[in-house]
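haha ok so turns out i had the wrong file open the whole time. this is the CORRECT one, sorry everyone. sequence first:
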Amino acid sequence: MDRRLLTILLIVFVQLVGASMVNPILPLYAQSEFSMQPQEITLLLTAFFAAQFIAGPFIGRLSDNYGRLPILIISQIGTVIAFALIGLADSVALLFFARVLDGITGGNIIVAQAYITDIFPEEKRTQALGYIFAAFGLGFIVGPAIGGVLAGLFGPQIPFLLAAVAAFFTVLLTQFTLEETVTPEDRERNKNAPKGSLNPIQLMTNVPLVAVLSVTFIAQFGFGMLIGVFALYSEAVLFVGSDAATVNFGVGFLLTFFGVAQFITQIFVLPRALERFSDPMIVVIGLVLRAVSMALYFIALGPVLAAIGNVFFALGSGLMMPPLQSLTTKTVDPKLKGGILGIYQSVISLSVIISTAIAGGIFEVSPIMPFFIGGVLFMLALVPAVFLWNWARHHVGALTDDLAAKPS
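then structure:
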């Protein structure tokens, strides 16, 4: 395996260990330490994704114009500061500030993905991006369990401070182990590229790109409903009547199932799926599996069905997200890979902004209603996904081979 890929995977793993330590317990932390209500708590997630939505395309384009490494390092430093501020926060305002800062500089994963597309040819790109999601899975195996145990034993602030240390470690890894992939010539050409290269009109007339982004938006809306209320849902339904330490540990344990399934999907399931199916068909399969997971959350009365739901959700996500990212990069000129990944991430962020903003209010009506809505949305996302699959079948070659051509 390419040494650079191993380094990027290690960086993503460490970053995700830190993020997965804190994200599951953040809602409970905000509730217990700051007496925030569900609607306010989900707005903490909204603040992060709103900032990322605004900053994402700029982060991607900056990495095209000035190189991957300096932008990666700056974004990682922002994450370090944000995690530390959350752990040391003494007010709701400081919590929101930290989340916005993390969102603005949260382009480290975008740049890491762009780095991967730089070092792999198109035919190997989906599998390489799958390794990124395997690192996500490993991070979710380790992070939530550590975060839940630390919060239960030493208080909710400790996981945030430890996550800041982990994020700082990724800064050192990037600085001392990675080499730049965007050459000076590439940077100069990208800076002088026509300003309209990624303008809205051209984006909207790129048929396969519109289909990919439509699937992404609808599917991630359902995902936002899940992440917005999962910890609160666990406390209200899965572990009802339990103390805070038990709930923290339980949430971490459940998300460990997600991480194990995510890792297994990327290492064993996705490579075999890629041998048998096209990228669009794999996306369709992933959406169906996600819909099944929502049904399991909806009927669950305890942690067992919810754990099975996490496995189905991780399996669906692990199958559909790498092909979606890979397809996105193949719909534009190669020199715009960083910029289009930024737009792709912004579509995700916009979807999660809206869904997390309303998830708290829906949760207050019924703790299980967000999962019903999420399941319906995953089924609706099948419409553009099937269109994308059908479009690919009626054009020259497989979509993975010919999307780099001029959009129709």
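The longest helix spans residues 122-154.
again sry for the mixup
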